[in-house]
Amino acid sequence: MTHCQTVCNRPASLEWHLKQLAVQVNWTLIGNICTSVSECWDSQGGDDSSGHPFNFPQICPLQLQHGDKLLMSADETLKSYGIRLLNVSKYDFENCSTSGLIKDQFLFPHNINESAQVEAKWLVPGHHYFIALHEGDPQLCKLGLRLNVSVKTQLCQGSPLLRLCSGSGICQTDLWEGAYHCRCHHHYSGRFCEKFDACLDNPCENKGVCLSNGSTDPNHRTYKCLCPPHFTVNCSEVIGKENCERVCENGTCVRVLPTSFKCVCDTG
């Protein structure tokens, strides 16, 4: 049997989807087999958590969202040949070995025939390693019939009743993260993007210092400006006409309130 090398295509980041997806993996030696970090992860850096690079054939690694369905099937050649799928440790995955008791580690009680759904107990959050055996022989694993599955949960809401990232961010993961986390929109911060920072763009003019209350209440997202002497509001207005004329170069002081003025720059 021969296999074809490939570069596994994968997005740089994934957004959490609210609806359960069904993901199909077809076990075959004639495609979707990669042999190195750069091929399998489309990355030169490699898996930061692996500790060392690898150089062995495997089915393109899979990243799943917790709760998604995983369906396994085999091509016609492997169906007629007969393979079973075994859950193994990372060491056994890398070395195509079957140490310890394997009876209770088979994904299915039979050879793969038609498409079959993997039980949820094999897909809890974390890393999972599956290899193919033919009558107990791991030779097919050494040719590339092994699959690394990462299952990720989301850490984007404080309660199931709340919106993801408080509706003020995107719940995403990247290739090497172990879970989905919030990427907050502009002005928002906090684990769940629950804090609003009105001072992010510094609305205080003339070297004023902005102080935000960092409120999580959308109706009380306020800030105040610590202004230089004689400045007020957001430090754009000057108290008293004389003070305004003193600081207003190449402009005209215009009254905006009974006691405050604003410097309007001359045109040209």
Description of the molecule:
The structure is a single chain. The longest helix has 7 residues, at 241-247. A hairpin with a 5-residue loop joins strand 13 and strand 14. The model is unreliable at 45-51 (pLDDT under 50). This protein is mainly β and 268 residues long. The termini are far apart. It has five helices and 20 strands. It is elongated and about 95 Å long.
Question: What's a concise summary of this model?
Answer:
This protein has 268 residues and is mostly beta strands. It contains five helices and 20 strands.
Kindly report how far apart the N and C termini lie.
79 Å
Shape: elongated
Round the mean pLDDT to the nearest integer and report it: 88
User: How many β-strand runs?
Assistant: 20
CATH topology of one domain: Immunoglobulin-like
> What portion of the residues fall into strands of 2 or more residues?
25-35%
Features:
mainly beta; four-stranded mixed sheet; repeat; Laminin; EGF-like domain; Immunoglobulin-like; 268 residues
